[in-house]
Amino acid sequence: xxxxxxxxxxxxxxxxxxxxxxxxxxxxxxxxxxxxxxxxxxxxxxxxxxxxxxxxxxxxxxxxxxxxxxxxxxxxxxxxxxxxxxxxxxxxxxxxxxxxxxxxxxxxxxxxxxxxxxxxxxxxxxxxxxxxxxxxxxxxxxxxxxxxxxxxxxxxxxxxxxxxxxxxxxxxxxxxxxxxxxxxxxxxxxxxxxxx
Length: 196
Ligand code: SAH
Prior knowledge:
Order of helices and strands: HEEHEHEHEEHEEE
Strand content: 25-35%
Shape: globular
Bound molecules: S-adenosyl-L-homocysteine
Number of helices: 5
């Protein structure tokens, strides 16, 4: 992964510490340490470690940072953020995954501040503002509530696009100003709208 350009040592260390095979369906366990995405049920995938590392590096996590994750999925990205000592709030909109990952967090002793079942397009207004927000599914557009829920200086990392996504970093410069950086293309499962 170093060769792919991930430089943040704390991110690489966190990824090394996490037993990725435990986050996968048992039928894929043998492949857990390949740098690939895999199914986690409900037609969703655990992102490939490189993608998780890339997004995490962009978040520039400091201990105690208050971070919102959209798309809990298997809980792998959540675990990386918790290992970096962030305070993590995470939202999943598929009930089946929400339930299974909730049990998994308990079993493993991973303790996000909040793990909710709901629609990530809305963010988590009751807990805002956040130091950073990470969206782990492909967003057809940038949901306004997510930008509004950032602290000044806060960062939103979001893959934007339909078939393919451009990894986009928004940094909140002031109440109304955001800096935007585009950082290469990726492929995510879609950030689902409505209830389907
Ligand atoms: N962070 C996850 C990635 C899972 S893939 C991991 O490390 O495993 C993306 C996840 O986003 C899926 O679990 C999917 O169900 C969820 N998702 C899709 N649309 C969503 C929405 N509108 N709100 C919240 N979560 C959503």
